[in-house]
Specification:
Blueprint: E1 8-10, E2 16-18, H1 22-31, H2 37-44, H3 48-60, E3 64-69, E4 72-77
Antiparallel strand pairs: 1-2, 3-4
Helix pairs in contact: 1-2, 2-3
Length: 79
């Protein structure tokens, strides 16, 4: 089925499902020396807005944490 600009796609039942898995974002945070939202978005291959929303969800689930550095958020894996 079709994709939308938010990084989601429809399954056979017409329901929206994520195009990117949580692991894509967690892997990006782990692999980048400085995991800013923009760098995570670039690594995953999605928009800044999608990366920010998904990282905030992971932060609510206590899987990552963020720190504001200058005007950017930097993401860290919660250990």
């Amino acid at each position: 089925m079709g994709d939308d600009h938010r990084g989601n796609s429809r399954d056979e039942g017409g329901r929206w499902s994520p195009q990117f898995e949580d692991g894509d974002f967690l892997d990006a945070v782990t692999s980048l020396p400085v995991a800013s939202t923009q760098r995570v978005a670039d690594e995953v291959g999605c928009s800044y807005d999608l990366a920010y929303r998904r990282l905030k969800e992971l932060e609510k689930d206590e899987r990552v944490e963020s720190e504001k550095v200058g005007g950017a958020f930097v993401w860290l894996i919660v250990e």
